[in-house]
Design goal:
Blueprint: H1 9-17, H2 19-28, H3 34-48, H4 53-57, H5 61-69, H6 78-96, H7 102-105, H8 111-119, H9 126-139, H10 147-150, H11 169-187
Length: 193
């Protein structure tokens, strides 16, 4: 299993190998391009010298924010997103023993349980948690019962709704088209998901 989200081999390798990197990428996926968000963990790792939950949680907050601001920036809102990443890492360290994967592996949880755990993380609302659960099920090997239903509509087989569906440049294009259509529908009053 190898993720192909960013178009950058090193960034995608880190996302594939490090569950915390994937979780941080999902947290960063707001108000920036998906590729930028999911390339963020590699930038953080290179600049901070680590991608360890406890180390990031206790990193000097001002220095960590500066890492986010360095060119190219990790996120368009470096200060607030640096704080959110540190808060997420503190939660992973405190509640999951520093192991992000424990969120979806500890106790052999089913899909609804993992969704509830994800929604308990800082910065993970209903939609972000569902998209991440779909990503785990579609691409990261999570097989807990009911994951497709719990992540609906993002878990739907054959859909192109989110980062969970990006496996190639072609699928990225389809996801972008879907997002554009949803934004257009929302602007015209037609709603959309």
């Amino acid at each position: 299993m190898t993720l192909h989200i960013t178009g950058d081999d090193a960034a995608d390798a880190l996302l594939t190998e490090d569950p915390l990197a994937l979780l941080i990428g999902m947290l960063l996926d707001q108000q920036v391009a998906m590729e930028t968000a999911f390339a963020g963990p590699l930038k953080i790792s290179e600049r901070a010298g680590t991608l360890d939950a406890a180390a990031i949680a206790t990193f000097d907050a001002d220095a960590f924010a500066e890492l986010f601001k360095a060119t190219p920036a990790v996120h368009r809102f470096p200060g607030s997103m640096a704080g959110r990443v540190q808060e997420l890492c503190a939660t992973v360290d405190r509640e999951w023993g520093g192991q992000a994967a424990a969120i979806w592996t500890d106790g052999d949880p089913d899909g609804p349980t993992v969704l509830k755990r994800l929604k308990g993380l800082p910065g993970f609302g209903e939609q972000k948690a569902k998209i991440f659960l779909a990503l785990l099920g579609k691409q990261y090997g999570f097989t807990g019962d009911g994951w497709r239903e719990a992540s609906s509509p993002y878990g739907e087989d054959g859909s192109f709704r989110s980062v969970a569906d990006i496996v190639s440049p072609e699928s990225l294009t389809k996801v972008r088209e879907h997002k554009r259509a949803m934004k257009a529908a929302a602007k015209s009053g037609g709603g959309g998901v």
